[in-house]
Write a structure and sequence with these properties.
Layout: E1 2-3, E2 7-15, E3 23-31, E4 40-45, H1 60-71, E5 75-78, H2 98-107, H3 117-130, E6 135-141, H4 143-155, E7 159-165, H5 176-192, H6 195-198, H7 204-217, E8 220-222, E9 225-227, H8 229-241, H9 249-257, H10 261-271, H11 283-294, H12 299-304, H13 313-326, E10 350-355, H14 363-370, E11 376-381, H15 395-406, E12 434-439, E13 444-449, E14 459-462, E15 465-473, H16 476-486, E16 494-499, E17 502-508, E18 512-518, E19 522-530, H17 536-545
Parallel strand pairs: 4-5, 4-6, 6-7, 7-10, 10-11
Antiparallel strand pairs: 1-2, 2-3, 3-5, 8-9, 12-13, 14-15, 15-19, 16-17, 17-18, 18-19
Helix pairs in contact: 3-4, 5-13, 7-8, 7-9, 8-9
Length: about 550
């Protein structure tokens, strides 16, 4: 182990298993203060499959360290075998040619079926044993929930409590085409309950169907590409998936209906910067695990047998996507016919977290999993999509999670839940009001324009306006030169400016202002670009004044 004040890193070697005589070296990250000798810990299982703890590096200190302090035990990440810094990293040069990959794996004494979900569950037990833990709390998000449930199936006695978030059971993707329409209906119900939204979008589901049909007759041309029905429906799904306490689906559908190009381009830009975890992602693991886990459920028959209304273009698009991902793309990939198909049954105390309008892992998945967990509690967050808690920024979700991990058998209070917040129109920069937001990629709070669209929690957009936060390594002089040049401000004067208690450097043009703040190892950049005549300097200063600990 390599020890630090708040983090320890090391490896645990386990047999690969299957037909291989080799080993797997698991990379382990432990977050927490004074964790040496701990007898209990939380194992957080990332999504994917194919992602690893490396993906969460930007928020380990800002999100997971405070949680560790609050619950009084360490939080442990294991890079799932085949991913991240665990060895071997499973690679396949051409996912469409699995035979060549299988031959390469065989030559390297790698059994691909030893990289499936049950083996990963056993690895968590091996790490717990190597660390001398007597019991663990298992917390899995998205695919991680599938893995956490498998851990409970195989090693229930070790698991003190279970948290599953954005729930993905092995067979749940097979009826996503039905569930995504139910999620859209929930987004529509949120809008219908707010007069400011319902007057603009009286019936979200019907308007989505009608708008897709209109685009089939006449696509909408924007500077970010032409919007046809497939693009439109993909954007609707993306906006549902990455909602964070505010649903922009009504506003996007209305903007496309009204052919409001400026607003539509704001949504399209946001949809291109979704917060998928970083780090090195194993596409081979993603395909292998999904194909093997779902094979026993006969995806082609299951998805092909769904009955979808003719006008349900969103559901039909998801069905085609699922059929390709879980059937067509799986041809030739190794599968394990012995994997279990029964839903996990357990009385381990379980907290089930879901976003009410999540299009990726809809609420129905959580309800299905919870129906077999006899000691479970479901919490659904309004106007929220995928990864409702674990990427940070949801104070209510964090408080519910903390209380549960401290006392899994106690009552779960949801009094902190706030009302649904559907957005029907994007405000102009000139009418901007501000609200505090968690800048999740960088781990601090700042005031940002209320009602502007964001999916990555680092850039906010509206028609004619953008506010973005960027962090760059190195010195401020180099960062100023690089960033100013990218936005057409090369050669502009850099002016020192005291804002609040922090020393900033400002570079401005007619409608764009950049603010730079140098800390010990990096530079925080605030970009404000306003094309409606609003004062970008004053806007940027207003944002910077709210930042006390960047």
């Amino acid at each position: 182990m390599v020890d630090g004040a708040t983090m320890r890193c090391g490896t645990v070697k386990v047999p690969m298993g299957g037909s291989s005589k080799g080993d797997v070296t698991l990379f382990v990250t432990i977050i927490g203060r004074n964790v040496t000798g701990a007898k209990q810990a939380v194992f957080h299982v990332p999504g994917g499959p194919g992602a690893s703890a490396e993906a969460y590096a930007p928020i380990l200190a800002s999100t997971y360290l405070p949680l560790s302090d609050a619950i009084g035990k360490p939080i442990i990440f294991v890079d799932q075998r085949g991913t991240g810094r665990s060895k071997p990293f499973l690679e396949c040069a051409d996912l469409a040619a699995p035979a060549a990959c299988r031959a390469a794996w065989t030559a390297a004494d790698i059994d691909p079926l030893a990289f499936t979900t049950p083996f990963a569950a056993d690895d968590i037990v091996a790490v717990a044993g190597a660390l001398g833990l007597s019991s663990i709390d298992a917390w899995g998000a998205s695919y991680g929930s599938r893995l956490a449930l498998e851990l409970v199936r195989r090693h229930e006695k070790l698991v003190r409590s279970l948290v599953i978030e954005s729930v993905d059971t092995a067979n749940s993707p097979l009826d996503d085409a039905l569930d995504i329409r139910a999620a859209l209906a929930r987004a529509g119900a949120e809008c219908a309950g707010k007069p400011a939204c319902s007057t603009v979008v009286p019936n979200l589901v019907a308007l989505t169907d009608a708008t897709a049909a209109d685009l089939a007759r006449e696509p909408l041309v924007t500077q970010l590409g032409s919007i046809d029905p497939d693009t439109f429906l993909s954007d609707v799904s993306t906006l549902m998936e990455w909602s964070r306490g505010a649903s922009f689906v009504p506003a996007y559908v209305a903007a496309v209906r009204d052919r409001n190009v400026a607003a539509v381009e704001s949504f399209r830009a946001a949809a291109s910067t979704t917060p998928f975890p970083g780090g090195e992602f194993s596409a081979a693991m993603n395909t292998l695990v999904n194909c093997s886990d779902l094979a026993p459920f006969k995806p082609a028959e299951s998805i092909g047998g769904l009955v979808l209304p003719a006008n349900d273009l969103l559901g039909r698009a998801r069905a085609a996507e699922s059929l390709n991902q879980y059937s067509t793309s799986c041809v030739g990939w190794p599968v394990d016919p012995k994997l279990p198909t029964e839903l996990v049954r357990s009385n381990v105390p379980a907290l089930v977290l879901s976003g009410a309008i999540d299009s990726n892992t809809p609420l129905e998945n959580a309800q299905l999993a919870a129906s077999r967990l006899s000691n479970s509690k479901i919490v659904a967050f309004p106007s929220t999509g995928h990864f409702s808690v674990h990427q940070g920024g949801n104070a209510c979700g964090a408080s519910i999670l903390t209380a549960f991990l401290v006392n899994p058998t106690g009552p779960v209070s949801t009094s902190c839940l706030v009302a649904a917040r559907p957005i029907a129109t994007l405000p102009s920069p000139a009418s901007a009001s501000f609200q505090s937001a968690w800048i999740s990629p960088f781990g601090f709070n700042a005031d940002v324009p209320e009602g502007w669209v964001t999916l990555d929690q680092s850039t906010w957009r509206t028609g004619g306006g953008t506010v973005s936060f960027v962090r760059a390594s190195g010195l401020i002089s180099d960062t100023i030169a690089a960033v100013a040049g990218q936005v057409g401000l090369a050669g502009a004067t850099a002016t020192p400016l005291m804002i609040g208690a922090l020393n900033w450097t400002q570079v401005s043009g007619p409608d764009t202002t950049l603010l730079f703040y140098q800390d010990k190892t990096s530079v925080l950049v605030i970009l404000v670009a306003l094309s409606d005549g609003s004062d970008a300097r004053a806007f940027a200063k207003r944002v910077a004044q709210s930042i006390t600990s960047p």
